[in-house]
């Protein structure tokens, strides 16, 4: 009402000044007024709205709802004022209310000049304004309702006419922030903002023109989800995300099948790795049939696989089948967060790394520390050749160290020296392991450990220059804990520093580019010499192309190579010089074809502007001169050609590219292996296990009962006295025999989503486990990371992994009774 009074008073004052009479307010309320008063009113309303909207325009606020509500209040206020003197013999209040309500359906009552002396002769300006506002609010509300009802049809129209699309599957509460960040990354402003902070004014001016001309990163993000009523969708729509309802694993039967040439990326990020791989296969088949247009960047298919070793195996296998138009990769929350922690650790340059706990995050972090160190070695010869030593503290840590060395056998060049201390974690153990160092970096890899924060603070008080990281389930990603001790806290997240993580192949391409910039420096004369954050997609993909082309071509040699060892203990087999020579011409041809697809043509000198792109090397190798020509008769200007390279020069330059790519791949842990495995040793694929169906027998596997929802912070001991913590929406599960024995130690937490997808209800609150698993014989002594903690397997056990990445051990006697093999 205060806002309405201000809006009424402003045009009233203008009317009074223009009429030079103190009766301006009466002219507005009881006379017809003039058009200036109406115009002034709406200009004032627009001004007030802009004052409210401009500072908040980037926030997720319901501006339409606020505007409609304010408009309705003003319309009711002005209508009541205008109709009040015109009630006549009827009840004044209720008559005014009725007449005002008719304004919202477009039926304005006109009693003016007919009822009494106090009623205006003609319709006053207040009622005219109220009539316009009421009808506008009513129509706006009707349109809003229709848009909400047909939101999916509207999204399909966006999808049909959008120039570029990014497809996402796996919308759950955990992935919702990732999808928001993905939409922000593709709104076309990420690199458009980066040039403003660049210090070199010459580069800054030229980069601005390139970025604005290319309109980099613009694409509509489309979520494929079976439930259009998912409550998370409302917030995502405000961020510009579109919805396509349907089965994520059946993309070919959806509306998206009509737009494969416009898809730039597919993100399969559900919690179920099996579902993600199915989506990736479907997307690969769909996109492979409909190649994108010439000159476009390769389509990325990114799959979430939480277990880092499985992700690495998928990455290597998929790269060998990727094409120049489709590139696949895998990532997971533990890998993304471990990379952040490893980068932080390397930046602080510690003289020892102390990891606490034999957990899967510890294993993943070890791999990422080794990978980050390899990248630093590839970028700088001044970086220490040896990574800081690593000390593992906690029960079963020797098995984690052995597992790390086994995993690093794929890379063939682990740079870490790992020592394990198999004793309980304590301040004394940490101090004993790091007492001789001045700059320790301590990472508590245990999740949901109540004492982690206190232990981290007390430990770092013993060191002058120490740093530490501990787990905090209240956050996502890595952030400072706000103390002055150099402490950080983490929790696995799909995002990296609040944005979309860099996939492994683009990460390798960045390292290759940074090597180039470190060698030749930044230049404003060539886009290819800009820093990575300002580099156009053309040059980013060009670096990626060089790596992927070499990786794919080694499989076509006379003695073919693969990038994953097919035998246990198999040693890398580097390429001989004659084999490297066999890769040179395919690389030169691939480079030439890539440039031509992006509009480059042959020219006597290299020219790179927005409108003209020429290079003297853009010829088929056989068409290049054997000696440097004196003139260029084929060039329009027929001028001298000092930049025209010969066949020998191009061969040497291209061979240097191939050798550099092979060295970079080796430094990043990718080395070639012979492709043919032996007959006696099982391959790694065979060691992963076989598929089984759960067939629970009542006599062997009693029923499971879910007694009650759990508080989010509830803890208790379970089974072997391992501490259990309920996080999120959990239920307390108890077995039938435990209820009969009244044994509280056999009670365990089950997330609500897991209860719905891994159990089948067979009675009142009675359930049985269901679904498929992958299982294999356990190797005696191996460490298995289960949801109850890390366990050491014995000879008579099976390692079982369900469809959602969880794994556990089961005795060999019990396993065949509750599982049936699947062909």
UniProtKB/TrEMBL annotation:
The chain crosses the membrane at residues 35-54, 63-84, 132-151. Residues 624-646 are annotated as: Disordered. The keyword Transmembrane helix applies. This is Uncharacterized protein. The lineage of its organism: Bacteria, Bacillati, Actinomycetota, Actinomycetes, Micrococcales. Keywords: Membrane, Transmembrane, Transmembrane helix.
